[in-house]
Amino acid sequence: MKKKTVLILSILLVAIAGITAFMIYKKYGKIVPYMEQLTKEQVGENVNLQPTSQKDAHYVGSQKCQKCHEEKFKDWKDSYHTKMIQDIKANPSAIVGDFATLPEDADFKKEDIVYTIGTKFKQRYMMEVDFNGTKDYVVGSYQWNTQLKKWQPYSSTKDWYQDAFENNNSKVGTSKTCDGCHFTGFMSQEKRTEPSVSCEACHGPASKHALHPEQDLVYKASNADPKRSSEVCMQCHMRNRDKRLETHTLKDLFGDVRDYPKGYEPGMPLVDYKKKAPFDGKETSEFYGNGVGKKNRTQGNDYVQSMMYKHGITCINCHDPHKLDNTVAKPLGDASCMKCHSFGSAIGPHQSTIEAHTHHKADSKGSSCIECHMPKIGKHLPESPATVRTHRFGFITPDETKKYKVPNACNSCHQDKSLEWSEEALKKWGMSQWVTK
Ligand code: HEC
Ligand code: HEC
Ligand code: HEC
Ligand code: HEC
Ligand code: HEC
Ligand code: HEC
Ligand code: HEC
Ligand code: HEC
User: Fold this and answer.
1) Whose CA is nearest to atom 17 of ligand 6?
2) Residue 348 placed within a domain
3) Which structural domain, as residue segments, surrounds residue 182?
4) What are φ and ψ of residue 351, in 5° steps?
């Protein structure tokens, strides 16, 4: 062979190798850093990953952690997880409700309040009571709807547990219905170590770690086992039932039904501590007819239906567990999805440009990932505007709206247009599989 031919062939080979490498990168590049997480063998539903040193530890509170973990403490302190329950003696300005307009038949007064629960969407009020010698709390009969700026009646025994308690807030202790999720330490050890969601709600009891940090570790929901990791969040961010209802009726457990996975500690298998919230294909007060959440606190119920959950992506791939700053919120926008996804890649979107995928201009609101894949379809209270974004991620079609009365992404934004209008557009875009035939 002539020297020149060899040279040309070599250049060609290098070029082909280069192009192939580029194509492979384009197809898989961005997801490669997550491959270890995604391909690791998962431990299975019932395996306990809590460090053995935590088994006989107890809850000590966040103050103990501060001196050694200053940075995490600060990140957490500024987050909403610390704002949920506020002691109004320590912080009287925590009350957001307008008590000048509190209806006269309310079963509480401003002076009775010990704690407030919530701020952003709604606020409820806790009063201390004595139930047969045990300190407990009850929730007032009115709640402040922050979104609508008005009082609305509140019954803590509505919905699924109306047959589990007396229908009277002042007879129902928050120890049964709220405190597992709204105090730290109550879920498993029935002690209100600290109001709100503090360190040990996610890391488990840390009394031994605080004494011998290197020898006695605590649970860290790292990416080791993705499902066990998301469960740390789903102990609270999910609607479930008392585990005992698998073998008992509400009547058997009258007055003692728990609305949280009692006994659970981070690292333990969550399925051992809760019964799945029932859904049999019909709309309920919690779910639309296609099984997607209709209320707040359904992130876990939605997320377990997503391909991302099934393939091992976790809550903390998208949410910083301490700051809780949502990586999609400005200024990151779509970039927080695009840290894994890219156009024409193996995990999608399969089209080669944003316009080809969304059929909207690149800078249109109609091209924002979360507007189509996480439309706001859930509500905090029946009268509130829909502000809760779904965590199912799969696209909800106009056809599903017809079948299940679940809002779809297109018409949530194009509110003045009909379902048929959206279906017509989808048909034009070559997506006729979602159009009612
Ligand atoms: C006396 C100092 C000290 C105190 C108090 C302390 N820690 Fe630590 N913590 C450490 C040190 C040191 C490490 C690193 C241990 C290692 O990697 O060997 C650590 C590691 C951790 C880790 C990571 C565990 C892992 O597997 O990587 C978490 C989570 C943690 N601490 C949480 C807490 C919490 C929650 C509290 C409060 C209840 C707390 N710590 C109190 C010193 C402390
Ligand atoms: C012990 C219960 C509990 C656990 C565990 C928990 N959360 Fe929360 N989370 C809450 C409550 C309650 C709120 C509402 C706080 C409020 O509005 O004042 C909340 C709020 C949030 C918010 C909204 C913040 C905002 O600015 O609006 C995000 C995001 C969040 N949690 C993510 C997570 C993630 C991720 C995990 C797991 C690493 C987790 N949570 C674990 C109870 C919990
Ligand atoms: C809502 C749940 C949640 C709360 C509340 C929380 N953490 Fe964490 N923490 C996590 C998760 C999840 C990780 C693992 C993050 C990762 O691997 O990316 C973590 C990691 C850590 C680590 C290890 C950091 C590292 O680089 O390995 C420390 C230390 C820690 N947390 C301390 C704290 C302290 C102290 C508090 C309270 C002031 C606290 N955490 C509150 C969920 C939480
Ligand atoms: C299984 C855990 C769990 C139980 C039980 C629970 N909550 Fe919550 N609650 C949450 C989580 C998680 C959020 C925040 C996420 C969301 O709303 O989507 C929340 C949000 C709230 C909010 C709104 C916060 C805001 O800033 O607007 C209020 C008020 C509230 N809960 C009160 C209660 C009361 C009162 C009870 C008992 C009758 C109760 N919760 C029982 C987990 C729970
Ligand atoms: C693929 C990314 C992704 C994953 C995975 C994910 N989230 Fe989110 N989450 C988001 C985005 C985006 C928002 C909306 C942010 C906004 O409005 O800016 C959000 C919002 C939230 C909120 C606030 C809800 C409200 O009503 O304001 C909570 C709470 C939350 N997520 C919890 C969770 C929990 C718990 C998990 C795991 C079960 C989880 N998320 C998994 C991306 C994710
Ligand atoms: C940490 C990496 C990662 C991040 C961040 C991420 N994704 Fe994903 N996503 C994946 C993987 C992996 C899959 C599964 C791909 C498959 O099934 O082929 C997936 C699948 C999907 C799917 C397919 C449908 C389904 O049921 O889940 C949609 C839609 C999606 N992601 C949207 C989003 C949006 C919107 C965001 C940003 C809020 C986001 N993703 C952020 C990794 C990620
Ligand atoms: C205008 C609505 C809309 C917007 C905006 C949108 N998507 Fe989609 N997405 C869809 C629809 C519809 C599908 C289903 C496509 C199909 O099956 O042909 C889909 C499918 C997907 C899938 C599954 C794989 C595939 O290609 O079918 C992923 C991943 C995805 N989108 C990610 C994203 C990301 C990341 C963004 C932001 C850059 C985004 N989407 C913006 C409507 C949208
Ligand atoms: C978050 C808001 C948003 C979502 C979600 C959204 N769009 Fe749009 N859409 C827009 C905006 C804004 C325009 C104006 C033109 C532009 O910016 O591209 C538009 C333009 C259009 C147009 C062309 C203009 C017209 O009025 O005839 C059609 C057709 C359309 N959208 C259909 C859909 C369909 C179908 C879906 C669901 C797959 C969808 N849109 C989802 C905001 C949205």
Assistant:
1) 307
2) no
3) 52-333+368-394
4) -75, 160
Q: 3-class DSSP state for residue 329?
A: coil
Q: Which atom of ligand 8 is nearest to the CA of 409?
A: 5
327 band by pLDDT with thresholds 50, 70 and 90? low
Q: Are 82 and 197 in contact (CB under 8 A)?
A: yes
Nearest CA to ligand 6 atom 36: 337
Question: Is residue 234 lining ligand 5, measured as CB closer than 6 Å?
Answer: yes
Q: Cβ neighbours of residue 103 under 8 Å, at least 6 residues apart? A: 142, 151
73 lines ligand 3 (CB under 6 A): yes
Residue from 369, 413, 434 to probe ligand 8 pocket by mutation (most atoms less than 8 Å from CB): 413
Task: Tell me how far the alpha carbon of residue 109 lies from the centroid of ligand 4, in angstroms.
Answer: 22
Torsion of CA 66, 191, 95, 169, to 10 degrees: 160
Output the CA 221–ligand 3 centroid distance in Å.
8
> For residue 143, which phi and psi values (nearest 5 degrees)?
-125, 155
Asked if residue 29 belongs to a domain, the reply is no
DSSP, collapsed to helix, strand or coil, labels residue 277 as: coil
Of the listed ligands, the closest to the CA of 83 is 2
Residue 344 forms part of a structural domain: no
Which one-letter DSSP state was computed for residue 302?
H
**Contact status, residue 370 vs residue 388, Cβ threshold 8 Å:** no
Residues with Cβ within 8 Å of residue 411, at least 6 apart in sequence: 398, 401, 417, 418, 419, 422
The answer as to whether 316 is a domain residue is yes
- Counted domains in the chain: 1
C-alpha to C-alpha distance for 360 and 427, rounded to whole angstroms = 15
Q: What is the dihedral of CA 413, 416, 419, 422, to 10 degrees?
A: -60
Distance 163 CA to ligand 4 centre (A): 20
- Interval between CA 337 and ligand 2 midpoint (Å): 20
- Ligand 1: centre distance to CA 68 (Å): 7
pLDDT digits (tens, 9 = 90+) for 363-393: 999 999 999 999 999 999 988 999 999 999 9
Residue 171 identity: K
The pLDDT mean for the chain works out to 93
Ligand nearest to the CA of 213: 1
Q: Tell me: the pLDDT tens digits for 152-201?
A: 999 988 777 888 999 899 999 999 999 999 999 999 999 999 999 999 99
CA-nearest of 392, 365, 387 to 377 is 387
